[in-house]
Design a protein that fits this description.
The chain is mainly alpha-helical and 180 residues long. Helices cover 73% and strands 0% of the residues.
């Protein structure tokens, strides 16, 4: 893969995140947030280019922060998520990147078996990211001092399916485009 392809991959991922990060669930005028998929795909597609992959990961982390800052400061989006827990998005996104990278370095996307393995890796990565980010938000946001862990889990459980299915759909679309 040459530098132009690497730049095109990073630019595509950055554009996808910039276009979708404003709304977790999407709306009539916006797509749902693709951040989980973006970091997984960054690891997946740039795994063999360690320096480029690390630079892309850092760039995407910085972009996420800038988009969030813009959304809160300029667009008037609520800053409710801006707590000490926000910093835990770095290891959350890092886990997605690492699992994508791990899969690409050890497995192939060839055939049904390869695609099934990719789907499993994407599901595990997205599930872990969802659970880790929610656990750290529960622990460090200071919003839930009077709420039990069980009650918190029951409240976030309703969002699990939509978060994971959106990430899986974006990943499937990217892999489908690559295969074409």
């Amino acid at each position: 893969m040459n530098n132009n392809k690497i730049i095109a991959i990073v630019a595509s991922l950055a554009l996808l995140m910039a276009a979708t990060r404003f709304n977790h669930f999407g709306s009539a005028i916006s797509l749902p947030d693709a951040s989980l998929a973006v970091f997984f795909l960054c690891g997946l597609y740039l795994a063999r280019f360690t320096r480029a992959s690390i630079a892309a990961f850092i760039t995407l982390i910085l972009e996420a922060g800038i988009v969030d800052y813009y959304a809160i400061s300029i667009q008037g989006v609520s800053d409710w998520c801006m707590t000490p827990a926000y910093w835990f998005l770095i290891p959350t996104y890092g886990s997605l990147w690492l699992i994508g990278r791990w899969f690409a370095l050890r497995h192939s996307m060839e055939g049904r078996r390869g695609l099934a393995g990719l789907a499993l890796a994407a599901w595990v990565a997205s599930s872990f990211a969802f659970l880790f980010s929610n656990a750290t938000f529960y622990i460090f946001s200071e919003y839930f001092d009077s709420m039990s862990v069980v009650e918190y889990l029951s409240r976030i459980a309703q969002y699990y399916g939509s978060y994971i299915s959106v990430a899986m759909l974006y990943i499937a679309c990217a892999v489908g485009i690559q295969m074409i």
